[in-house]
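ENTRY TYPE: paired fold submission
RECORD: A
CONTENT: sequence, then structure tokens
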Amino acid sequence: MRKQYSCNHTVIVGDLNQHLVARAFEELLTVYGLTNHVTFPTHISGSSLDPVISDLPEGVVTCRPLGAVGSSDHLAVFSTIHVAGLRDVPKKRTNWLWGKTNWEGLQDALRHTPWNNILTGDVDTQVRSFTSTIHSLQRRYVPTHTFTVKPLDRPWFGYNCRVAADEKSRAWKRFRRHPTHNNKQRHKEACFNMQRVQRVAQQRWQDELKFKLSDRSVGSKSWWTALKEQQGFAPDDHIPPLNKLTPLQHRRDVAGLCVTYKILKQGAPHLAILRQPWATPHPYSTRDANKRDQQLIVPFARTATFFRSFLPRYSRLWNHVVRQTDMHQAATLHIFKCAVNAWLMPSGHN
């Protein structure tokens, strides 16, 4: 799913019957940092067969049963996600007032500019010097206005619209504090003025857009993008990224080490059957003996395919982690998983 869709968060619901694939279900939660928010039975037999899985914190997602639906033997699960929508921060925009430009001063400055001393060197250097000189003269002789652009502002909502909107807001606050007839009339006039300014801005923006699209130099992609914006369609920006796939064994090793971490460091009671005894410390002092008490006894196994291979493989891999790194001292499972994932890369411990 994460390869097919580009999303900020993931929520998986359904009748998954995870008790049939308990180990694969545990690996799924561990490897991808997911949480099952259903902690109550969802079947009339008393089993929990309808999980709600997400990568959101436990306090964000809450679930509760609603009872059976119709003749179904499953209970409906009511899930609530407490999240706030992401909003872009306001930005500052500079509006150049070309109508109030001091053209005489600008022309005089251009005539007295020592171009022979500025335009020296190769072509790239001359272009940078010329651009820098023009920009400095522009900032000197062309007045500007700086105003705040909010994320929800329309493309035609420029400086004049912002001034009218601010004036309307001030008039409304004044009328709310002092509800007199004069303040009410001022607020009414500010509303009419804002509507007038918006109509002018919209018409100007549409005229400029028509003039731009009538130019033969406009490509078909730009033309269709502008047309979709006019019709209210958002541009298609949901093309999924081509993430580099990791081998299946790599993900299994990450899951196995995370399960071992939960057994040894977090004392997960449902995984106590997999706990291995600690290795006996060396009676003498060596460089490896300092970490001997954090290593496990590796059991013997004749198979490399069934569940009996889990304890030998990941006990041995855990000992490698302890001897070569300090990842086993991580404070949280998330920190440990990220460190193990980087350590198991081809350029990591191999």
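RECORD: B
CONTENT: sequence, then structure tokens
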Amino acid sequence: MSSQAAQLLHHRQQMANLGNGQADMNAMNQKQNSVKRPGEATGSTYVKRKPTDRNLPSKIESTLPEAKLYAQLQAQERKLDALVTRKKLDLQDALMKPFYTKKTLRIFVSNLAIDQPNMVDQAANSSGVPTWILKIEGRIVDITGKPIPDQPKFSSLIQSMNIELERDPTLYSEGNKIEWSKPSSGQETDGFEIKRRGDTDVRAKIELTLSNPAEQYKLSKALAHLLGFETGTQSAVIMGLWQYIKFNSLQDPQEKHFVNNDDNLRNIFYMPKMAFPQIPDLVKRHLFPLDPIIIEHTIRVDLPEFKPNQAYDIQVDVPDEYRVKLESMLSNNDSHQKEIAALDEKIVQYVHALHNATIKRDFFFGFSSKPTQFFQSWIGSQTKDLETILGDSYSLDLDDPRKADLFGQPWVDEAVFHYLSAKVG
């Protein structure tokens, strides 16, 4: 029996050195996984798991008072994480809704005349071909008429532009119609220039179709008269219609999902009764694209530059500055997530190292305070581990380690020698 106990102690000392932290713990696990049970096939490899626990062991508070402060910090962190997550979801939900504000777009139309017959000063540099340049510019202005910096460009605010010139088509091969459509990508600009040949005044009709990011529509006359507004989004129209139905008590008292149309609604939808699911489709029939902006300008060639004394102010929908700030805030929050993840990884490593240090401290404290009881408990624990590893082919009498004469046998000297060698080495 003594030789078996010596073999057990020597075997376990080679398997694990509890005083050397994580590396020795991994060596012990690998050693245990490398032992073959009777009839068990080999070939499985040990996969080292990455630690993820950030919680300190509960028993460490007795030896490390600062552990309570760490637990309090963790509780505050959970509260902050919940608050930040909730606010982030609120911001993301807010970004799903349209954020547009009304701004004033001021449009300027002017023209230049080049190499005209009446311009004597340009005769020396004249190319001999009279031309003119039509300039269409626009910018966002405030209530005083001053340009507002960092605003969308003019070309981003219009969807298309058509220009029709009133001149003899047989004299000019370029044609009298100019069309422009907003490209899917490209650099935005604050204005357009159209250059054509000509030495006489020309009337130009400029038709601008504004971009419609808020999806505004023009209502039919009957529906606009009923709701009190001529343009609006589809949701605004449906909401206005529902307010009219509720104010006039038109909802069927028996079948709540039906509306009993009054004379006004019958004149619009041509039915005595309609279901609520039908309303969006019925409303669509009375929504039309917004009218284009029409500007008429006379291109004069008797002056080098002709700027009319008037401009055209148009109300347009532009992205709200608050939305831009929200998007910037969310992008900055995402950029900080990598830094937070790196700090969390460091905390996990420190907690893991502290856990290993606690194991070492408990080991040496138990050994120094009660050596006899420590060895009895430790050998019993190692015996059970060895039986678990080797299975039924290797067993020890668990009562033997409890007897004092067991440790007076010759194998003890050899076991102590190997134990101290492993600790010192």
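NOTES ON RECORD B: Confidence is low (pLDDT under 50) at residues 1-44. Residues 52-99+324-393 form one domain.
STATUS: closed
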